[in-house]
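pls read this protein.

:::
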Amino acid sequence: MFLQERQNAIADLIAEQGRVAVADLAARFDVSEDCIRKDLKQLVEEGRAKKVYGGAIRPEAPLERVVLNRVDINADAKRAIAERAYGLIEPGDTVFLDVSSTNHYLAQLLAAGDTRCQVVSTMIDILQILAANPLVTAVGTGGTVNRELNGFVGARTVEALGPLRFDRAFIAALGVDAASGDVLTFDADDGVVKRCALERSREAYLVADAEKFGVWGTYAYGNVRDFAAVITAPATPALVESLEEAGATVL
C-alpha cells in the first residue's frame, strides 16, 4: 500500500470509529509505530485528525457550550459510565452530582431506582429528574445560574457547598490532559465549584468519556490523582495505560 493510500485509510478509520491507537494501526498496516506517528502528524496538519495521547481522534467540531445539547453526544459511552457510577452508590449516601451530560444519565438511573439517598446537585435538570423519586432527597445548591451549563456556578455556590460533606461525588470535565493528568474545564466559575465539591468528598470520581482525553480547557480544577478513580468508556488499553502512568485508578 502506498503512503497516500495508507493515510487515506487511516483518515477513514478515524472518521468511522472516532478514535484510533498507534499500536493498533501499526499492526493493521504492518508498519512501524514511528511510521504511523508520521502519518497521523500529516493528517493533523491537513485537519483530518486531532492528536491525542497514544493515537488520534476526529477533528473537533466547535465546542458545544450548552450542556443539554451534549446529552446525546457519545450517548452509549455516557450511559455505560453512568451505570458503573450508579453501582457505587450505597443506601444512605449523600452524593454530589455536578453539571454534566453524563450525570444527566446517572440522575435518570437514580430516579428510576430503589436506592434511598440524598443527592446535592448544581444542575437544574438533574434536580428536576430526581424529584420524581420519593426515595431520593434532591438538594439544589443555589447560586448564579449559568444558562449554557443549566446550573449554578460561582462564589455563592461555593459558599453553599462549604459546610457540606459527601460520601461520593461524581464530577465531570471538559477535557483531560492524559499525559499530565490535569482535569480541565472551560469556565473558572464552574471550575471553582468542581474543586470545592472534590475537596469535600470522601470518594470523588471523575466521569469522562474517552473523547474528553486530549481535549484542552482553560481552567485546571484538579488532577486525576485527586480522584478515587476515573470512570471512562470506552476504556481502551492505551487510554488506561496513560491514565495509570499519570497516577490514576481506572474503572
